[in-house]
Amino acid sequence: MIGLPINWVPIDNTEMTTDFLVANSTLAKGTQPFTTSTTETELSAFTTIDDINSNSIVLVSVNDGRQGYIETKSEILSISIAIMLMGFIFLAVSYFSLDRFVLSRLSNLDDDVRKISESGSLKDRTQTKGNDEIFNLSRRINNMLEQISVSQAKINDYALTLEKKVEEKKNELEEANSKLIKTERMAAIGEIAGMVGHDLRNPLSGIKNAVFLLKKKYRPLLGDGGTELLLIIDKAIDHSNKIINDLLDYSRELHLDYEEISPKSLISYTLLAINFPSKIKVLEQVEDSPTIWVDTNKMQRVFTNLVKNSFDAMPDGGALEISSRHDEQTVNFSFIDTGCGMSEDAAKKIFTPLFTTKAQGMGFGLSICKRIVEAHGGKIEVESTLNKGTKFTISLPLEPKPQ
Questions:
Q1: Inside any domain, residue 108
Q2: Does the residue 98 lie in any domain?
Q3: Would you say residue 129 lies in a domain?
């Protein structure tokens, strides 16, 4: 019916083949049915047929070729290999895609971040392109760098502003401290000057009165020699009084009474009150405008001091040039002489109180001039060459200094 070869032998047949013996032994143990490969190309199935008493009497075998099994097994193996190859190809493609679109881009992003970290430059940016999560991560990193850069710039600006404010406060503190020291020093000098002036003026006044009486009542008895000695004493008293006055003036606080005047008028009024030595030529080239606001009495005192100093520097004669120039903010007066000049070291100390290059004097004249000029908001400078001459420059603002 099924077209398969069937073989059978009695159970008690002692001459059955080996395959039947094995099958009989196995079936006797209760395995129903029993299947085994009799050859490489054939598969056999064994079972028993029982009698009415359930006793096995016949051993039956059915044989079938294994070609279908072998073909099926081969097909399964081929399919398995094909699946494995496809899996390998899929893994390779997946790895290539992962490397190209994910791993390599992450590596490039990591390199960009590392380079930025090593360079410390907040101007550099990551270069990742695309439209995916890695690109979004790169963009967020760039945004973060931009925010850090802006914050760093703000911090730098704040630090610079803070540094400037600290420097300004430091300068203000130093200036205030300098003014305090100067005020205390001037107060001490003023107190000493007041006591010295009071203690010296009285005896000097007495000596001057005595000289006056001697010249008036006893001139015939003194003769020419005695009269000349009295003149020397009288000049020495005047010189001593001038030193006392300079000391008192230097120690007093300056109060300026401003008035408007042209530069030319200011110089002209000054020169009218000075006797010019015959050997000295004075050349005046002062502008008549613009007008300036100054305390004329005090500024004339400054100019008088400079002119007389120039005369003293030219005992054998010479020339003094007085000129002025102006710009948008200042008027500059120049006093240039052809006198003996001074050394560089002396020029640096010339405005220092008690410093003088003259045989007579206490060295208050130019220091007082400097105080007056600076009180006007101006400045005084000196340039000098030994044995060639000296130039004093006074710069005064066009607008008066607020009081």
A1: no
A2: no
A3: no
Judging by DSSP bridges, how do beta strands 318-326 and 280-285 pair with one another? parallel
d(Cα 341, Cα 277) in Å, to the nearest integer? Answer: 18
Q: Is residue 306 part of a domain?
A: yes
pLDDT tens, residue by residue, 120-179: 776 777 777 777 777 777 778 778 878 888 888 888 888 888 888 888 888 888 888 876
Tokens 């496809």: give the residue.
86
The answer to whether residues 384 and 341 touch, using CB atoms and an 8 Å cutoff, is: yes
Q: In sequence order, what are the residues at sequence separation of 6 or more whose Cβ sits closer than 8 angstroms to the Cβ of residue 340?
A: 313, 314, 386, 387
Does the reported pTM lie above 0.90?
Answer: no
pLDDT tens string 18-47: 777 777 777 777 666 767 666 666 777 778
CA distance 1 to 165: 116
* Structural domains counted in the chain: 2
Spatial contact of 303 and 264, defined as CB atoms under 8 Å apart:
no
The answer to whether 328 touches 380, Cβ cutoff 8 Å, is no
Q: What is the DSSP letter of 146?
A: H
Q: How far apart are the two ends of the chain, measured CA to CA in Å?
A: 140
The H-or-E segment that residue 48 falls in is strand 42-50
CATH number at 380 reads 3.30.565.10
Which domain, by its residues, includes 392?
256-397
Largest CA distance in the chain: 199
Kindly state the tokens that stand for 268. 């002209």
Q: Are 19 and 36 in contact (CB under 8 A)?
A: yes
Cα 235 from Cα 243, distance rounded (Å):
12
